[in-house]
């Protein structure tokens, strides 16, 4: 009986656990401090956009989709932010990952969004950045380094965005950073 | 004995290899309201029809009559 247990159950247990662990292992996502992976894509109006051309500016790279409810709440707030920081070296690039372009267009038609709205048609950009949640926002400094990663969106967290942008624009000292 | 062990391991592998983590950006279809447990508009309509049809027999709570006007 004991030998049956040893032969069957123990190896099966380890096999199952290892398979489960492989399935649940975290993807190797981009970390704070990494250099921003460059990408070239098209805006919704067909203009080519290259991330590297934004060097020297503070950039928010945001991943959103029309099926994601917090994303839909976040984009109008980004319009607010873009207007607030219009006189600064600041840009927002919102990367849409919808499988159907029309769904995204239907959403953005409802709002006046004065920032860069681009498509990730093949989902290659999102596959590189691997955002930990939807939406996720990567705060990129003037040198092209990721300095903060904001996971998700809630109205109560709006000030975190402002604080982090101010830090990157050197309007406040880094001691006042709101996010790790 | 070895054959059995091999079979067991093989079957475990087949069964558990279906465990994958769906990444946040891959959840478009999972986020669809039709995937929710609470049902969607089509379910609500079907339920309404059932209520209208079965109400006289108190099939689903018995609210309303058979005319479908409530």
Structure at a glance:
The complex is a heterodimer of chains A (180) and B (70). By secondary structure, chain A is an alpha/beta fold.
Describe the protein in words.
The complex is a heterodimer of chains A (180) and B (70). In chain A, 36% of the residues lie in helices and 20% in strands. Chain A has helices at residues 2-24, 69-84, 101-108, 124-129, 158-168; strands at residues 40-43, 48-50, 58-64, 90-96, 116-119, 136-140, 146-151. A seven-stranded mixed sheet of chain A has the order 2-1-5-4-3-6-7, with helices on one face. In chain A, β6 (136-140) and β7 form a beta hairpin. Chain A is elongated, with a radius of gyration of 20 Å. Helices cover 41% and strands 0% of the residues of chain B. Chain B is built from two helices and no strands. The longest helix of chain B has 15 residues, at 2-16. At the A-B interface, α1 of A face α1 of B.
Question: Strands, helices and their partners?
Answer:
The complex is a heterodimer of chains A (180) and B (70).
Chain A: H1 2-24, E1 40-43, E2 48-50, E3 58-64, H2 69-84, E4 90-96, H3 101-108, E5 116-119, H4 124-129, E6 136-140, E7 146-151, H5 158-168
Parallel strand pairs in A: 3-4, 4-5
Antiparallel strand pairs in A: 1-2, 1-5, 3-6, 6-7
Chain B: H1 2-16, H2 41-54
């Amino acid at each position: 009986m004991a030998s049956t247990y040893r032969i069957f159950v123990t190896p099966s247990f380890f096999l199952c656990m290892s398979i489960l662990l492989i399935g649940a292992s975290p993807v190797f996502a981009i970390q704070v401090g990494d250099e921003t992976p460059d990408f070239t894509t098209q805006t919704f109006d067909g203009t080519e956009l290259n991330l590297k051309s934004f060097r020297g500016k503070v950039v928010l790279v945001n991943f959103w989709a029309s099926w994601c409810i917090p994303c839909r709440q976040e984009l109008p707030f980004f319009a607010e932010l873009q207007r607030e920081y219009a006189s600064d070296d600041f840009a927002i690039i919102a990367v849409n990952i919808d499988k159907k372009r029309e769904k995204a267009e239907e959403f953005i038609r409802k709002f006046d969004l004065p920032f860069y709205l681009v498509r990730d048609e093949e989902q290659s950009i999102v596959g590189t950045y691997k955002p930990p949640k939807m939406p996720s926002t990567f705060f990129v400094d003037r040198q092209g380094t990721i300095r903060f990663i904001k996971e998700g969106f809630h109205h109560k967290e709006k000030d975190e965005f402002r604080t982090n942008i101010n830090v990157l624009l050197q309007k406040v000292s880094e001691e006042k950073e709101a996010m790790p | 004995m070895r054959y059995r062990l091999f079979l067991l391991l093989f079957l475990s592998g087949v069964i558990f290899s279906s465990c994958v983590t769906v990444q946040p950006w891959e959840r478009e279809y999972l986020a669809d309201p039709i995937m929710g447990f609470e049902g969607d508009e089509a379910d609500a309509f079907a339920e309404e029809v059932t209520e209208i049809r079965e109400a006289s027999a108190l099939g689903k709570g018995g609210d309303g009559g058979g005319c479908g006007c409530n």
